[in-house]
């Protein structure tokens, strides 16, 4: 739905979406923003951090967990990326971007885009956000899927939240893990935050953490997830595997929220 465009007038029944009126009309707040590239960082061999400085308007109000659409220069195409900064940093847009082979935005980050360049951004979009409840939270991130959770967790830390959160972070090799310092800092501020990184392809001699597919690691570490809220972000195959697993482990389907990082470009 989030990537679809109506080709004609249509009637959409949203009564089953379980949204408050505020959440529903939140969609009306989407704006167009002019930004300047402030920083491009190599986080892993195939993941880049991109910081955009908001220029006009100079701030964007958003909810932790949402995403933006970034326009490809000289085109009317956009690419969706989740915000990794908390809403308290409304003057910037921090994105964490997987360098898909042949990806048009990825190519821009490979030397074509420079500090000071202009990018147009549309947003905020999406319904992913920490739902109010007393339930403990499990978050499952694959690759660049850590982005929305960095935003959500930073906001929880700013709120001095005591809600237990377990963050699973799936990567192939140790060199694919990133933001570890930021997560360690979040753990200092939020003692109820447990962090479980998992490597699926390689087990270095000095690795004492979990190994295997992140979904298998979730099942091994937390075999009973009844009474939890679950949030997922990352590649569609990970989401497809994780949702039925979470239901099997006891999470109610209505308490599972996810953003599948569906690619926009053609195959
Ligand atoms: C709500 C939402 C939030 C998102 N947030 C993020 C985010 O925070 N970070 C992020 O990195 N992505 C995110 N995505 C995904 C991102 O929008 C797409 O991957 C986008 O297509 C990337 O743009 P691009 O121009 O680099 O690649 P495109 O020009 O769109 O090309 C993608 C190409 O890569 C191919 N491809 C797809 N997967 C693979 C693969 N595993 N290996 C090889 N080729 C592949 C596709 O078939 C296509 O040809 C999000 C998507 C959605 C819907």
UniProtKB/TrEMBL annotation:
Domain of life: Bacteria
EC number: 1.14.13.2
The UniProt record lists the keyword Ribosomal protein: no
Keyword Transport: no
Top EC group: oxidoreductase
Alphabetized Gene3D superfamilies for the sequence: Nucleotide-binding domain of ferredoxin-NADP reductase (FNR) module, Translation factors
Keywords, in A-Z order: 2Fe-2S, Iron, Iron-sulfur, Metal-binding, Monooxygenase, Oxidoreductase
Gene Ontology molecular function: any one: 4-hydroxybenzoate 3-monooxygenase activity
Domain FAD-binding FR-type, first and last residues per copy: 30-131
PANTHER family in the record: NADH OXIDOREDUCTASE HCR, PROTEIN RFBI
Name recorded for this polypeptide: Methane monooxygenase component C
Lineage: Bacteria, Bacillati, Actinomycetota, Actinomycetes, Kitasatosporales
């Amino acid at each position: 739905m989030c990537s679809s465009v109506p080709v004609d007038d249509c009637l959409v029944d949203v009564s089953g979406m379980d949204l408050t009126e505020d959440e529903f009309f939140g969609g009306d707040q989407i704006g167009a923003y002019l930004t300047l590239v402030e920083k491009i960082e190599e986080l892993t061999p195939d993941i880049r951090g991109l910081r955009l400085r908001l220029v006009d308007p100079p701030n964007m109000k958003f909810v932790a967990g949402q995403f933006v659409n970034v326009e490809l220069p000289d085109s009317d195409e956009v690419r969706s990326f989740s915000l990794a900064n908390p809403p308290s940093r409304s003057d910037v847009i921090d994105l964490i971007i997987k360098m898909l082979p042949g990806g048009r935005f990825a190519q821009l980050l490979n030397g074509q885009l420079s500090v000071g360049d202009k990018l147009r951004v549309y947003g905020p979009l999406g319904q992913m956000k920490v739902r109010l409840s007393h339930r403990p939270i499990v978050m499952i991130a694959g690759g660049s899927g850590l982005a929305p959770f960095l935003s959500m967790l930073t906001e929880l830390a700013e709120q001095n939240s005591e809600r237990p959160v377990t963050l699973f972070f799936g990567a192939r090799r140790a060199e694919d893990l990133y933001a570890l310092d930021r997560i360690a800092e979040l753990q200092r501020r939020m003692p109820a935050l447990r962090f479980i990184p998992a490597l699926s392809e390689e087990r270095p001699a000095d690795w004492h953490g979990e190994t295997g597919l992140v979904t298998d690691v979730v099942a091994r570490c937390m075999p009973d997830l009844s009474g939890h809220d679950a949030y997922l972000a990352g590649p569609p195959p990970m989401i497809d595997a994780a949702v039925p697993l979470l239901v099997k482990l006891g999470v109610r389907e209505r308490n599972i929220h996810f953003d599948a990082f569906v690619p926009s470009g053609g195959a």
